[in-house]
C-alpha cells in the first residue's frame, strides 16, 4: 500500500529567497541612481512602488515592510539630492509610497495567515484520510493486490477517493457458488475536504460491516445505498452529495469477476496475452445516494477473469489528468502495453507515466488505483 505523499508546510529555500530579494533591492538601487542623474523634468520615483509590490508576491509581511521602508528612504535620498524634502512633487511621491507600502504589507500579512490556515486544514484532512484508508494487504486469498493514492496539487483540496477489500465466506457468492471469494470497492465522493473524507469513512464503514454478511453484490450495494441515503437525509443534502463506486466480487476458484457499477469509471481488464478491455456493464446503477431519484434494480454483471489477468480499478482523477495541450491521460492505451507486470510494478509504471503526462507534473484531482491479479496456478 502506498499512501498519499505527505505535504509538509511550504517553506521557501534560502537560495530562492535570496535570488528573489535581489530583484526589489536592485530595482530600488537602479531607480534611485537613474532618478538622481536624470534631467530636472524627469521623475522616476513612482517606479519605486514596484519594489514592495513585487516583494509582497513571495515574501512575508516583515520583509515586505522592510523593502517598503528602504524604498521610502531611497525616495528621501532622491528628494534631497535633486531639490529638498519640502518640494511638493517629492513630498507627494513619498506619501504615496508610504501608503502603498503599508497596503501591500497588510495584504502580505493576510496571505500568510491564509497559507497557515490552508496548511493546517490539509494536515488535519490528510491525517483523517490516512486513518480512513486502511492499507490493503499484498495478498488477499489467492489474489495479488497493490494500491496507490496520489495527491492533487491544490492546497486543502483533498478528495474523497476510497477503496477497501474484504473476504467472504461460503454461501455469500453472487454467482451462487459455495466457495470463498474477495469483495472490493473503489469509489469517489462528490466534493472535497474534510466533508468528503467523512462521507468516504461512512461508505467504507458500511462496506466493512456488510461485505462479510450480504449474500450477493446487489444486496451489498443496496445496504451501502441505504447507509449513504440515511446519512444524507439527516444532513438535509440529498441529491447534492453522492458517491460513485464500483463494487466487485472475485471468487477464489472461478475465473470470473462479478461487477456492479454505480456511476463509476469502468475497471480495466489487462489480459495476460496483452491488451486492455473496459468492463462496461450493460445496466449500471446510479451513484450511491441517488438511487431514490431513479427507479432501477441493482444487477451484477459477470466478466471473465482468467489466470494471469489483472484488474485495474481507478478513480476519475486518473482519466482527467491533462497534459500541456489539454489532452486527457490515455490509461487504457498505456496499460495495454504493460501486461504481464505484477500489481505493484504496474502501479509504479502508471504513476510515473501519469505524472509525466500531467501538466507541471502535478494532478488537479486526487487519484486512487487498485490493481488485482489472479496468479497462474502451478
Structural account:
With 378 residues, this protein is of the alpha+beta class. It is 42% helix and 19% strand. The chain contains 9 helices and 11 strands. Helix 1 packs parallel to helix 3 and helix 4 packs parallel to helix 5. The longest helix has 45 residues. The chain is elongated, with a radius of gyration of 29 Å. The protein starts with 13 loop residues before the first helix and ends in a 5-residue tail after the last strand.
Secondary-structure topology with pairs:
Blueprint: H1 14-37, H2 50-56, H3 61-82, H4 88-132, E1 139-140, E2 143-150, E3 159-168, E4 181-192, H5 193-210, H6 217-235, E5 243-251, E6 256-262, E7 268-270, E8 276-278, E9 301-304, E10 310-314, H7 316-319, H8 331-335, H9 343-357, E11 367-373
Antiparallel strand pairs: 1-2, 2-11, 3-4, 4-5, 5-6, 6-9, 7-8, 7-10, 10-11
Helix pairs in contact: 1-2, 1-3, 2-3, 3-4, 4-5, 5-6
Task: Determine the N-to-C terminus distance.
Answer: 26 Å
The helix content, as a percent range, equals 40-55%
What is the tally of helical segments? 9
* Broad structural category: alpha+beta
Amino acid at each position: 500500500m502506498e499512501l498519499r505523499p505527505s505535504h509538509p508546510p511550504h517553506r521557501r529555500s534560502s537560495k530562492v529567497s535570496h535570488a528573489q530579494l535581489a530583484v526589489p533591492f536592485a530595482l530600488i538601487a537602479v531607480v534611485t541612481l537613474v532618478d538622481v542623474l536624470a534631467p530636472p523634468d524627469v521623475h522616476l520615483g513612482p517606479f519605486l512602488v514596484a519594489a514592495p509590490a513585487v516583494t509582497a508576491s513571495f515574501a512575508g509581511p516583515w520583509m515586505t515592510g522592510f523593502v517598503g521602508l528602504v524604498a521610502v528612504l531611497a525616495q528621501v535620498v532622491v528628494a534631497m539630492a535633486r531639490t529638498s524634502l519640502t518640494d511638493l512633487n517629492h513630498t507627494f511621491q513619498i506619501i504615496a509610497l508610504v501608503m502603498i507600502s503599508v497596503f501591500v504589507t497588510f495584504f502580505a500579512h493576510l496571505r500568510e495567515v491564509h497559507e497557515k490556515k490552508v496548511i493546517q486544514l490539509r494536515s488535519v484532512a490528510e491525517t483523517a484520510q490516512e486513518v480512513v484508508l486502511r492499507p490493503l494487504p499484498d495478498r488477499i486469498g489467492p489474489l495479488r493486490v497493490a494500491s496507490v493514492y496520489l495527491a492533487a496539487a491544490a492546497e486543502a483540496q483533498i478528495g474523497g477517493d476510497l477503496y477497501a477489500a474484504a473476504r467472504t465466506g461460503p454461501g455469500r457468492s453472487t454467482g451462487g457458488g459455495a466457495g470463498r471469494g474477495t469483495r472490493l470497492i473503489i469509489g469517489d465522493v462528490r466534493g472535497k475536504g474534510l466533508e468528503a473524507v467523512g462521507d468516504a469513512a461512512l461508505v467504507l464503514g458500511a462496506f466493512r460491516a456488510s461485505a462479510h454478511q450480504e449474500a450477493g453484490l446487489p444486496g451489498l450495494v443496496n445496504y451501502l445505498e441505504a447507509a449513504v441515503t440515511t446519512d444524507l437525509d439527516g444532513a438535509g443534502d440529498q441529491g447534492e452529495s453522492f458517491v460513485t463506486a464500483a463494487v466487485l466480487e472475485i471468487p477464489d476458484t472461478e475465473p470470473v469477476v462479478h461487477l456492479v457499477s454505480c456511476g463509476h469509471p469502468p475497471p480495466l481488464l489487462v489480459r495476460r496475452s496483452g491488451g486492455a478491455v473496459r468492463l462496461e456493464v450493460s445496466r449500471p446503477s446510479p451513484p450511491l445516494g441517488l438511487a431514490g431519484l431513479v427507479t432501477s434494480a441493482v444487477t451484477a454483471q459477470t466478466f471473465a477473469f482468467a489466470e494471469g489477468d489483472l484488474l485495474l480499478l481507478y478513480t476519475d482523477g486518473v482519466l482527467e489528468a491533462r497534459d500541456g495541450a489539454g489532452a486527457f491521460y490515455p490509461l487504457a492505451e498505456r496499460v495495454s502495453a504493460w501486461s504481464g507486470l505484477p500489481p505493484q510494478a504496474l502501479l509504479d509504471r502508471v504513476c510515473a507515466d501519469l505524472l509525466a503526462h500531467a501538466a507541471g507534473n502535478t494532478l488537479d484531482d486526487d487519484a486512487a488505483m487498485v490493481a488485482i491479479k489472479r496468479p497462474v496456478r502451478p
